Amino acid sequence: MSRTPLPDLAAPGAAAGPAADLGPTGLGPALAALVAGAVAMGLSPILVRFVSPEVGPFASAFWRVALALPVLWAWMRWEEARAPHLRRGLTPSAVLAGLAFSGDLLFWHLAILGTTVANATFFATTAPVFVVLFAWAGLRRRPAGRTLLGLLVCLLGGATLVGQSVQVDPARLAGDRDGVITAVFFALYFLTVERARARGLGAARVTFVASCITALVLLGAVALLETRPVLPHSPGAATGLLALALISHAGGQGLLSVALGRLPAGFSSLVIFLEAVAAAILAWLLLGEALGGLQVLGGGLILAGIAVARPKRSRRTA
After folding, report:
1. Residue 82 burial (10 A CB sphere; 0-12, 13-18, 19+)
2. Would you tell me how many other CB atoms lie within 10 Å of the CB of residue 307?
3. What is the pLDDT of residues 168-190, one digit of tens each?
4. Membrane-spanning regions, if any (predicted)?
5. Confidence of residue 225 (pLDDT cuts 50, 70, 90)
6. What is the DSSP track for the chain?
7. Signed CA dihedral, 291, 294, 299, 304: sign only
């Protein structure tokens, strides 16, 4: 990983890296990509719930990635044809991003099986904490005050959003532990994607390479761990898996890779909170699940935290 500091995780006196130059033409589109990616990923719990009567959790995770590969490959070819300067081939950071995302999905499903969805969600939302800690301890990127303040407000909002449903049960400690491990892998995913983008790989190639690695790992997980059906038996479930692949993975993860080419990982990791807000709103709109006052307050706190932590706009052009 590069030790080049980024705008919200910069060491004092260090030179700014490529992502630090967020001019008017760079910050707005990157933020738009981040928000759109959060909404796309926020749809995934609803789609997983829709296909779960017919397809097991590890199988749905595999299909989410595998079915997206043709679209990601086409996007990669298109992007690199338009920008010949982009780096080709494999890089260690892109491969590590695939391994990190594999761990994220595997332990996320183990957490869902081993504890309540609320507990799994609550512990998974600690991923930005690990991003800041890893960047600080391992990459010497001291977090700016606004980053820490925004993260604290987002954590308070996340706890308010799902905290009323969190349960402390000694019998579910293994599932709670898997939720924390999910957060660790998700943090590593952000940092490795950021590194791959800084090394000159396009967003499409990073997402495609990482997805290929993830699909191979998940295929092994399906063979070893899946105890439920692997293939859907109705057109509705098959459509749900396709939507999970195209919207939540190709769209959500792809847009996240786009954003990580312009925004620092510390700020971009707050997308997990946006994802929780998007999931709550979509569940209200599509499933009729009521939004209580605490959920609305939690969502408001998350948006406020992200506004506090956002990178400063540079006067220079990108």
Report:
1. exposed
2. 11
3. 777 778 888 988 999 999 999 98
4. 31-52, 58-78, 117-136, 148-167, 179-196, 203-225, 237-260, 267-286, 292-309
5. confident
6. ------TTSPPTTPPP-GGG---HHHHHHHHHHHHHHHHHHHTHHHHHHHHTTTS-HHHHHHHHHHTTHHHHHHHHHHHHHH-TTSB-S--HHHHHHHHHHHHHHHHHHHHHHHS-HHHHHHHHTTHHHHHHHHHHHHH--PPPHHHHHHHHHHHHHHHHHHGGG----GGGHHHHHHHHHHHHHHHHHHHHHHHHHHTTB-HHHHHHHHHHHHHHHHHHHHHHH--S-SS--SHHHHHHHHHIIIIIIIIIIHHHHHHHTTS-HHHHTTHHHHHHHHHHHHHHHHH-----HHHHHHHHHHHHHHHHHSPPPPSS--
7. positive
pLDDT at residue 85 is higher than 90: no
Q: What is the average pLDDT across 1-24? A: 35
Q: Report d(CA 228, CA 238) in Å as an integer.
A: 16
Which amino acid is located at 294 in the chain? Answer: L
Q: How many CB atoms lie under 10 A from the CB of residue 177? A: 16
pLDDT > 80? residue 312 = no
Cβ partners under 8 Å of residue 278, min gap 6: 38, 39, 41, 42, 43
Banded pLDDT at 87 (limits 50, 70, 90): confident
Please state the φ and ψ torsions of residue 304, each to the nearest 5 degrees.
-65, -40
What Å distances lie between residue 223 and 58, 62, 73, 268, CA to CA? 9, 11, 25, 33
What is the widest separation between alpha-carbon atoms in the chain? 60
Give CA torsion, residues 280, 281, 286, 288, to 10 deg: 70
Measured CA to CA, the distance from residue 115 to residue 286 in angstroms comes to 25
Residue 270 CB-half CA count within 13 A: 30
The confidence band for 316, taking pLDDT boundaries of 50, 70 and 90, is: very low
